[in-house]
Amino acid sequence: MSLLQEINFPRDLEHALKILYQGQSRHHCSNQCNNYIRCIESLSNVQRITELNYLSILKICLYLEQFELDLEMKKYTLLNYAIGKCNSENKIIINMESLNIDPPKLIRPGDTAIFSESTNKTRTNRTIWTKVLIVVKNKITVKLCHGKTSKIEKKRFNISFQSRHWPLRCCHHALTIISECNWHEIIYPQLKTNCTEIEFDIEWINTNIKKNEQQKQAVMKILNNTARPAPYIIFGPPGTGKTATLVEAICQIVRQYPTKNILVCTLSNAAADEITKRLIKSIPTNLIYRMYAPSREWSSVDKEIRPCANFVQDITIFLSKDILLLKKIIISTLLSSIRLIGENFRKNHFSYIIIDEASQAIEPDMLIPLAVTNQAEDEGIGFQPQIVIAGDPYQLGPVIHSKRIEHLLGRSMLERLMNDCDPYKIQKNGKYNPNYITKLIKNYRSHESLLYVSNKLFYNELKFCGGADTQMALNWSQLPNKKFPMIFQEVLGTEQRSESLSVYNTAEVLAVLVYVEILMNTKFKKHAITPKDIGIITPFTRQELNIKHHLAAMNLKDITVGTVETFQGQERNVIILSTVRSIIFKHNNKEHIGFLSNPKRFNVALTRAKALTIIIGNPNILCTNKHWNFLWNYCKEHNGYVSFKQLPLKKNSKVAKLMGNLQTHSCTDRVMQLKGWRYGVFVGGFIGLFGICCYATMIGPMLNPEPYKRIRERAFTDKPS
């Protein structure tokens, strides 16, 4: 398709945003501008998106998200940057380390880097435009759009970055198409009273599904289009075989309906690749088209997928419509499916649109593949396919930068349907309506003990069906309870902020490394632990970088370390969770622990492990939150709690030598309790000193008494970084 138009803000809206965000004068503010200001200021009071305000709210949310992203991009501006030696391919590598910020996550390939030559920090001479090619940690590779790098070598420039906002442009385009069609029956569906079903003679591809009533039900209902034109939801809690169910449904559609075509979309390329790899085991590759974006490198495409990928040699291509019509299954990300809109397929070309990772996508993302069916060459109402959306509303939703609209744009279509629309709500019998939604309940991933907390707090009815690999950590030497593969390791360290404002906790870094070293010398029932068995989750980027740095020094680079967002959808035999938090915050006179209070983030972190979970943190702080308090009590009841004094650090270990010069604060006594574990506060805001305190050297477990001053409470809201 042709390039999407740039997003042009309505003039009055742009003026309103500059008034609200940049303090621009209200002088000459039009009536429409004032209306926009009132609208934006009232968004915090809009509880949810309704059928009446659906299009207008989503549109204004997209504008606000773009405006705030543009403001945030300005923090990456480099002043008086010296250009070094450039290579012969007109490429320049920009080192962002001088900004003292975490890796620039907002800068993506395809964005623009603008070089403004300057003799000082303010006077500008000429401007050079470049395109961002690669972003790796703090290094950004750009290519000149015109001219040669030799002309700018050894000169100084101010460098700023502009996002091309491709995802938002796709969303705006989809909204425009949807607004011109009959979207109500799919976006806000009503309950149907009758549905005729066919009994299919099924030969199951995945024989395990034959034994799972919920998975079988989902496949049969999808084949029968029981929800159409409404979406059919597969509610898949962690480890319950959501992807396996989708793959089986696709295979059965191909078998039962040989003439029907399927569009499969996911939020991420990783999920699209996983579905593709499973499908090509049962379906000829010439019937499958894995459509990548033009930016995809041939070398990064899995060898199994290459026969059905849109590459000629190592160059991405886009198939002609005649060839596309021969493909039974087209698989792409939600954003890449925008390329199909201009093909003008007949309105019934796709009999099924199947969307995975639906709980992580913003609602306008979900509209992109739906818009494909509405750009049909025949007249009439579109939305003929049976739409299937799969996800888990209790795991992390979309990432939104604008806090003002997070409660609106950050709520996925799947979550909205399940909470707001009658067909998807739990019925009087306590069950979901199987014609509209199936909840998968058999968990194959984790040991029962590891999912108990999430099941009690969120899912209620999971059944544990894991194999022998979920039992491998039982009887491990470090388990206080040999039948309980979970440890809550108390660490009473100090939370610190880096110059980039991201948070780290040196004491917890030590504890992580202690357990990693022990694990790397461990066998679980003859299974030797390797780096790929271990995942380390921490909420903060700076803690992630610190842990990675020390693991590299231990030659353990293959251990994956990342935030909760990184691990969503992944699993490991062993998960170590470093919580970092050692400060309680206050907001509206309520205590909280920042974004660790988010129940979805808590749930994702706890449901990644198959055989062993090690939680590292300060219970005095964490237990001010009801979910963390439930977890801590659960570990305590099952003798899974280990005090800081009992941290298994051996004097002559590699970790002890590596960390020998570091010190960390700890507290040997509990602080006073208030509704569980809470810090006490004196009247007037003065902070007391509690207990006898000490510090621990990293070369041994000997503790030396020293006063420990309680970290004062700070009344600001931190945000993930």
Automatic annotation (TrEMBL):
Keyword vocabulary terms for this entry: ATP-binding, Cytoplasm, Helicase, Hydrolase, Membrane, Nucleotide-binding, RNA-mediated gene silencing, Transmembrane, Transmembrane helix
Residue ranges annotated as transmembrane are: 677-703
Single GO term (MF): 5'-3' RNA helicase activity
Q: Which residues does UniProt call coiled coil?
A: none
- GO BP of this protein: mitochondrial respiratory chain complex IV assembly; regulatory ncRNA-mediated gene silencing
| Gene3D superfamilies in alphabetical order | P-loop containing nucleotide triphosphate hydrolases
Q: Where in the cell is it found?
A: Cytoplasm
Superkingdom of source: Eukaryota
Task: Give the InterPro entries listed for this entry.
Answer: AAA+_ATPase (IPR003593), DNA2/NAM7-like_C (IPR041679), DNA2/NAM7_AAA_11 (IPR041677), MITRAC7/Phoenixin (IPR027917), MOV-10/SDE3_DEXXQ/H-box (IPR026122), P-loop_NTPase (IPR027417), SF1_C_Upf1 (IPR047187)
Which GO cellular component term is one of those annotated?
A: mitochondrion
Query: Which stretches make up the AAA+ ATPase domain?
Result: 228-419
Q: What is this protein called?
A: Putative helicase mov-10-B.1
Species source reads Cyphomyrmex costatus
